[in-house]
Q: What sequence folds into this?
């Protein structure tokens, strides 16, 4: 992969990472609630989920899903159900408070990592997107594995930095969000439910 192709991919990946999605929303919510340092576990879970999606898409699962629309619809509904569940939890959650961080550290880390990972895996259309998007930057005349490593590493690093930045901003304004905690939770819940509804709508279209 030439430097020019890599730079073009990096810019495209940055633009993709800046598009709001479930993982960015989780980074925002958890950054405000738990602080940006603990939210690294949420972000890491999402990065792991994206790594799985990129890997399977580049191994051809995206094409399988495209050829099997019923499987695609099933996965979309499962993803929508998870997003709706996240929205319900946030909507009914109490306002943010400093005491929210008193949960056992080990358990908290596992929970945050799991939520980040499931949020990344909740939208199977990402498989198709990665299949089409990443294929534009693969040179079929060169070894696949080195290109794969460069592409995956670049994308995941950019995604991590963007989500980390979102978490830092949320952590900085957490004391404002404490006073408006219920409203903040419900706004985030509404976005999650909207994403779930969009996923269902797309599966029926």
A:
């Amino acid at each position: 992969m030439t430097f020019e192709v890599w730079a073009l991919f990096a810019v495209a990946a940055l633009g993709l990472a800046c598009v709001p999605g479930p993982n960015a929303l989780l980074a925002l919510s958890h950054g405000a609630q738990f602080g940006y340092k603990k939210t690294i576990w949420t972000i890491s879970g999402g990065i792991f989920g994206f790594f799985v999606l990129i890997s399977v898409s580049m191994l051809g699962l995206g094409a399988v899903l495209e050829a099997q629309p019923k499987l695609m619809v099933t996965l979309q509904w499962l993803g929508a159900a998870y997003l709706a569940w996240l929205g319900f939890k946030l909507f009914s959650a109490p306002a943010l408070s400093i005491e929210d961080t008193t949960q056992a550290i080990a358990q908290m880390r596992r929970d945050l990592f799991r939520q980040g990972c499931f949020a990344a895996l909740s939208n199977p259309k990402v498989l198709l997107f990665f299949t089409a998007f990443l294929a534009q930057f693969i040179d079929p005349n060169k070894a696949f594995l080195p290109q794969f490593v460069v592409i995956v590493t670049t994308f995941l690093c950019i995604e991590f930095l963007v989500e980390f930045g979102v978490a830092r901003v949320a952590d900085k304004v957490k004391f404002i969000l404490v006073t408006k905690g219920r409203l903040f939770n419900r706004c985030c819940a509404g976005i999650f439910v909207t994403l779930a509804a969009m996923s269902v709508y797309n599966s029926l279209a």
About this structure: The chain has one domain: 3-178. The two ends are 38 Å apart (CA to CA). Residues 3-178 form one domain. Confidence is low (pLDDT under 50) at residues 97-102.
